[in-house]
Amino acid sequence: PDPVDIPPDMEKTLFDIVNHFNISIDRLSGGKERDGVLWLNLRAARKAGNAVAYGAGWDYARKALDLLPENAPKDRYQLALAVYNEAIRLAYLSRNYPEMERLGDAVLEFASKALDKSVVFEYRLMQLMAQNRFPDAVDFVVESLGGMGIHIPRKLSEEDLAIFGQTRARLEELGLSGLDELRDMDDDEKQLALRLYLRAFSAFGYAAVELYPFVINKLLLLSLEHGKTPEMFHLLTEYGIIESLMGNIADAYEYSRISIILMEKVDGFEAMKVKLRAFSHIYNLHWKLHYKELT
Fold first, then answer.
1. Cα–Cα distance measured from residue 44 to residue 7, given in angstroms and rounded to the nearest whole number
2. Which neighbouring-strand residues pair with 228?
3. pLDDT at position 24, please?
4. Which of these, 144, 136, 47, 39, lies nearest to 97 by C-alpha position?
5. How many CB atoms lie within 10 A of CB 180?
6. Neighbours of 246 (CB within 10 A)
7. pTM attached to this predicted model
8. Angle at 122 between CA 151 and CA 96, to 5 degrees
9. Cβ proximity of 36 and 5 under 8 Å
10. How many CA atoms lie within 13 A of 120 on its CB side?
11. Contact 123/88 with Cβ under 8 angstroms?
């Protein structure tokens, strides 16, 4: 939580306030004053970034980094993590990739939990996707998931192929009602793994198509065993695409239909809902619905 309390009427002039403090930053007398200005810069960085003023946001984030005590990653862990994560976000958005990499390396050095490294992982992956470096994105996902205990082999064996039957059996066992009644996933690391895959799923289609069906089955089965997440419903539609390619058009349609129904019950995630509908309409629902029925 931001400890600096600003009256609502002063929020409109936040940037002017922060700019004045930054001009006189050398005159700050002690740690408490520096902390206050640090938090103001962090708030200004977020506000500028949310207003698509990425360059200005990056400048405020850099100032917040400069105001961090040298031992902050150790003694003020949450503060350091908040400042570094915002700086990473704005470095990415302003396409300052070298700084994003440098800051990410620092977080990976001091972060104590895998979840605290999630911002670094996600923005590095987004950078690779933005640069159309699909083989590198696949490597990044495979390596990251491996670090979380989710093994994705580079070459599939007969033993690996058994997962296709396991996933189908589990889906048939659960049915629609069972999918709806799955508990929510409470494993943060596995949720991160699903988010990373979803950010780069198209890279597998371009650069590792031989792994694509396996990865979908692997992560969908993981969701069915550990609880549902919004990402699971996208995986369910992708599973439907595989069924469609195998000629199982009725199953493909049904999996997409179910995924949309269940996703609509989730609060928020509006962008993901739109993406899921578009994906389902393009690949699966059109087999059984007239285009005028696709809503």
1. 15
2. 184
3. 87
4. 136
5. 13
6. 11
7. 0.86
8. 135
9. no
10. 22
11. yes
CB-count burial class (<10 Å; 0-12, 13-18, 19+) for 167: buried
Contact between 243 and 268 (Cβ < 8 Å): no
Residue 95 to residue 89: CA distance in whole angstroms: 10
Here the tokens at position 211 are 């792994």
CA 158, chain centre distance (Å):
32
Question: What residues contact residue 179 under an 8 Å CB cut-off, 6+ apart?
Answer: 171, 228, 236, 258, 262
Please name which of 49, 51, 40 lies closest in space to residue 10, comparing C-alpha atoms.
Answer: 40
Residue corresponding to tokens 């007969």: 158
DSSP one-letter string for 50-89: HTT-HHHHHHHHHHHHHHS-TTHHHHSHHHHHHHHHHHHH
Distance CA 63, CA 15 (A): 13
Cβ 78 vs Cβ 101: under 8 Å: no
Does the pLDDT value for residue 259 go beyond 80?
yes
Q: What is the DSSP letter of 290?
A: -
Q: How far apart are CA 287 and CA 295, in angstroms?
A: 14
Burial class of 62 by CB neighbour count within 10 A (0 to 12, 13 to 18, 19+): middle
> Running DSSP on this structure, what letter comes out for residue 7?
-
- What is the C-alpha to C-alpha distance for residues 55 and 61, in angstroms, rounded to an integer? 10
**Average of per-residue pLDDT across 24-48:** 87
What is the Cα–Cα distance from 61 to 45, expressed in whole angstroms? 5
The yes-or-no verdict on residue 56 having pLDDT over 70 is yes
Q: What is the CA radius of gyration of the chain?
A: 23
Query: What's the chain's length in residues?
Result: 295
In the chain, the amino acid numbered 198 is L
**pLDDT tens sequence across 142-179:** 999 999 999 999 999 999 999 999 999 999 999 878 99
